[in-house]
Amino acid sequence: MSASNNRHSRNNRYIATWLLISFFSSLFSTSVFADEVTSKGTVLRGKVVSFSSAGVEFETEYGKGTISIPWENIEGIKTEVPFQVLHGENQEIDAPVLNITDGKLMVGESADTATPIDMATIQSAQPIGAEGLSFAQRMQSRFRFWDGSFILGFSLSQSTVDTTGLLIALKALRNKEPTRFFLEGSYRYSTQKESDEDSTTLENELRGMARLEYDFTPRLYGFASFDAENDKVEDLKIRAIPKAGLGYRLWVQQIDETKENFLQVEAGGAYVYERFYGGDSNDFFSVVFGALAHYYLPYNSVFDLRVDYLPAINDWANDYLIRAEASLSMPLLKAISLVASAIDVYDSTPAENTDENSLFFTLGLSVGF
Q: Given this model, what pLDDT does residue 13 score?
């Protein structure tokens, strides 16, 4: 009798344990996979990771990883948690997604108070945690039209010749049709030391650039920019180049809503002013010719190329400036990429006792924001 009671008691404990595990597993599953997307008549259950004007990033409950579903294949959508939806000119709504009605995304706490949003105007949408908007989400709302990257490179060798090098660069772009505004700044420094001799500075350059583009048509645009540079190794105290003109996109290949390959050319006018350490200077008016290329490679790698040629109007054969820059970016993690770049600057009239050509190679890490 006692053995039978013990057996029943153990079975009851097993059943109770199994029920508790099933209950909490059900709760966990419901909390993680509580969203729904209806696509081509099929209701998919899982988790909406994010969405934009291109479509929805969705993680199904049937497997691992996310799938991308374009809006034209979605008939309905519902999220349990609120989303930060950035849309329109400068609009934001923080609420759950309720459904799609008359081709509009309905976002709000209830059907009566929901706001209809045109999917084509959505810049980004991210889920909001239980603690509310995060710092990153607040910054994204404030700087929604900005993208940028911070690049850091460092080199070190210790042998017969010791060398050290540092590169710090910042790039930012504000893209709001029909305008694009670019900001760039960089500083590079390197030294070399042989045995017990004093170290020699190989690079000590500071450069900045601001550029504005305005689209007149999908292919024709206008631009205005200002470049400034200081290079102590080349005895260049200041090189300032304001320029403006027109550009034309010769070839454009649209990859998705946000990515495209292109090749474009530019022409316009510029003024080049150079002052060297020691007091000498050189300046001239120039006709500027430029070419830019941007191409996506496998594994989301990106190749960029830019070439500028600025000959003096009054002495184009003997007084000119050429600058070429090529870079290859390969993503390592979500926001971190490996960047290799080469910059070549040829000045036909450099400072006394310096070379006409300067060539720099850089390998570093880029953090996107």
A: 54
Residues linked to residue 234 through DSSP beta bridges, in sequence order:
none
Helix (H, G, I), strand (E, B) or coil at 177: coil
Contact 154, 165 (CB under 8 A): yes
| DSSP string over 128-172 | -BTTBS-HHHHHHHHTTTEEEEEEEEEEEE-SSEEEEEEEEEEEE
Number of domains in the chain: 2
Domain with residue 187: its CATH number is: 2.40.160.40
**Torsion sign over Cα 99, 103, 106, 111:** negative
Q: Are residues 178 and 326 in the same domain?
A: yes
Mind listing the pLDDT tens digit for each residue in 118-158?
999 998 899 998 888 888 888 878 888 888 999 999 887 77
Neighbouring-strand partners of residue 290: 266, 308
Residues 111 and 171 both lie in one domain: no
Positions of E strands within 7-145:
35-39, 42-52, 55-60, 67-70, 76-78, 83-87, 91-95, 97-101, 104-107, 115-117, 122-127
Query: 213 and 332, same structural domain?
Result: yes
pTM: 0.74
DSSP letters along 250-267, please?
EEEEE-SSS-EEEEEEEE
pLDDT at 6 > cutoff 70: no
pLDDT tens digits, one per residue of 45-57: 999 999 998 899 9
